Amino acid sequence: MLNVDVEVDRRDFPVRAALHVADGERVALFGPSGAGKTTVLEVIAGLVAPRTGHVELAGRVLTPAAGPPVPPWQRRVGLLRQDPGLFPHLSVGANLRYARRRGAGPPPAELGALTRQLGIDGLLDAMPVRLSGGQRHRVALGRLLLAHCDALLLDEPFASLDAALRRSLTALVRDLAEQRAVPTLLVTHQLSDAQAFADRLAVMDRGVILQEGAPDEVVLRPASRHVAVLVGYLGFVSVPGGQDGNLVAGVHPDRVLPVADPSRGLVVSGNVVAARPSGAGWEADLRAGDAAFTCRLPGPPVGDRVTVTVADPPYFGPDGARAEPALAAGDADP
Amino acid sequence: MSPGDLAAALTGAGNLDPLLTSVESGGVTLAVLMLVGTPLAWMLARDRLPFPRVWEAGILCSLLLPPLVIGLLLVFMVGPYTWIGGILSWLHQSATNTFLALVIAEVYESAPYFVLGALAAFTSVDQRLEEQAGLLGDRPFAVFRRVTLPLAAPGLAMSLAVAWARAAGAFGAVVIIAYHPFGIPMQIFTTLQETGLYTALPYALILLVVALPLPLAAYVWSARAERRRRG
After folding, report:
1. CA distance B130 to A64
2. CA-based nearest residue to B174, from B186, B160, B163
3. Which residues touch B191 (CB under 8 Å, ≥6 apart)?
4. In angstroms, rounded to a whole number, what is the distance separating the alpha carbons of residues B29 and B17?
């Protein structure tokens, strides 16, 4: 179990984080660049000292509320960054065995099984500079696992890799973290990575955790308009007939149906401002009254005006907090 | 100059003493630089020293000042009428015209070449690798031994080789505080003054032979280390 409750001073804004990650649980700390996510990881790893707070891991107090913290080399915390940090003067095998320096190295069976699982068993004599990006990350991950850390901290480890490799490595880390039953904390600014990896999602911005919950819950029911923007809602339309006339509905591009179906959500008609191919479909920018939003459609929009249904949208009051309208669905203002 | 002339010039009684003096003093100088200069450079590279700009300025001073001026300053720092000179005298030592004085002069002339080179070598080591080694369980000294030092080693070796060449050829500060015992540069100077260019040339050749191998070896070793890293 990893328990973190810290406040860290930074030049731009203080970072406050309270997180609890159970053994075997995978939590993603998601937010824009510069939100303070990496700072949280560095505090857990002992690389940054918090102003106040404590960090506990596997029953050990790593950073006490008062008194000296446990130094990084005694924390048993594994940190994998975007740069895998392989030692360039050591072969792959020596990198993998790095943490087991006092004995004769990891048992051959463990080393062999892990390298096979990671697909790097033929690379033990190679130097890191000869490896591809994906291979380097696999070696770095193997090195952490052979160090038998009590927690895995992943700081956007696969951000520089292509989408397919990122998906396969994310799945691999997820499986390995589950097998080892260690608390795992992923920091990312890619929502899809967070959703693919985590049991639980924590949304952070400007040093504050804004919402925490199951990935689906956070994305479909953002706690505020601010969180909605962070998780990808690209437009907000006014809702007529609500108890409070100032309610707005969040429009997520992936939650727009190309038909008018009031039974499934909010029906909105808008003028097509721009349209472009996007993936297997099209992306269109619509303007409905004062509101502008983007939606994905299966094909190019026909005509200058289209009507769509925003499926089960979240609603927000004038203060930006989530609100429930008196009329859950219907036609939007314009 | 024929090989016979060279052999005749070097086989006289005591003719190789300057060579031994230079090798011994150069060796001690390198040991001092490694023991003192390496941690100093590491601390400067990792911002572990207070007032780092002051330290860097002090190191640069000995690089920018003419060696003769360094010699004059050393007289005022460690000469017989200074408090350091007093302590040395109490220990029956002297920092003028002794082997110790020669080493001090060579250290001052060569230190900036080593320290600044070592500083660059340590700065080039990615601190995230050191952090990673720490997180994998290494204490700071083990991180230094297993990661920092091997990665900085090619740069350190080159810096040490340059410092060696500088120490072996040190003359300006030496002529002020360590006229005796004669190292090769002083031997060249006095031979040139007393008997002319022709008899001084063999010593110049020796200086070249003494000063050159270490830089060459360091270059070859650095290149091999780099090749090994590239797999």
Report:
1. 24
2. B186
3. B199, B200, B203
4. 18
- Per-residue pLDDT in tens (0 to 9) along chain A, 334 residues: 999 999 999 988 999 999 999 999 999 999 999 899 999 999 999 999 999 999 999 999 999 988 899 999 999 999 999 899 999 999 999 999 998 655 556 777 888 988 998 889 899 999 999 999 889 999 999 999 888 899 999 999 888 888 888 888 888 888 888 888 999 999 999 898 899 999 999 999 999 999 999 999 999 999 999 999 999 998 898 886 555 567 899 999 989 998 888 999 999 988 998 999 988 889 999 998 888 888 888 888 877 888 999 999 999 988 888 887 765 445 554 4
Radius of gyration over every alpha carbon of chain B, rounded to an integer in angstroms: 20
Judge whether A75 is closer than 8 Å to chain B, CB to CB.
yes
Contact assignment for B136 to A143 by CB distance below 8 Å: yes
Tokens of A188: 């990312």
Q: How far apart are CA A314 and CA A229, in angstroms?
A: 12
In Å, what is the CA distance from A169 to each residue of A117, A134, A172, A176?
Answer: 12, 8, 5, 10
- A151 at the B interface (CB within 8 A)? no
What's the gap in Å between the CA of B120 and the closest CA on chain A? 18
ipTM for the predicted complex comes to 0.84
Hey, what are A14's tokens? Answer: 């203080």
From chain B residues 125-144, the ones with a CB under 8 A of any chain A CB are 126, 128-129, 131-140, 142
Contacts of B147 in chain A (CB under 8 A): 87
What are the residues whose beta carbons fall under 8 Å from the beta carbon of A265, sequence distance 6 or more? A255, A257, A309, A310, A311, A312, A313, A329
